[in-house]
Write a structure and sequence with these properties.
single chain; 114 residues; 5 strands
């Protein structure tokens, strides 16, 4: 098989793959503010609440109450008890590190329409 045929095969194979769509916010806040940490997971459309814990704002998911510590929460969402829907990139927790919430980067956030 020639190199040209092999390259054509890989190009056609790759172009036929379906890509997962992730809706990132088209604002500077969607950039990775924790680049030194590995990405562990990506979650979308999570219902939750903003909570204030020891002067830090966290995202708490409903109903399982998982806590996330975002590095890019916009000031307009820093309201204790605010119901929200959010998507995020979950970052790694280093060994022997204790945090109030899982480090994350918010990719989309909006006030709940409840």
């Amino acid at each position: 098989m020639s190199l040209k045929s092999l390259l054509m095969f890989f190009f056609l194979s790759a172009s036929g793959c379906q890509k997962n769509k992730i809706n990132f916010v088209s604002m500077p806040t969607a950039t990775d503010c924790l680049p030194e940490r590995k990405t562990m997971d990506i979650r979308s459309e999570i219902d939750g609440t903003i909570i204030l814990v020891a002067e830090s704002y966290l995202l708490e998911s409903k109903p399982d109450k998982e806590r996330f510590s975002p590095c890019n929460l916009d000031d307009k969402y820093k309201v204790n008890g605010l119901d929200i829907r959010f998507s995020l990139i979950i970052k790694e927790i280093y060994p022997n590190e204790r945090l109030m919430g899982t480090p994350c980067v918010i990719t989309n956030i909006e006030k709940s329409k409840q």
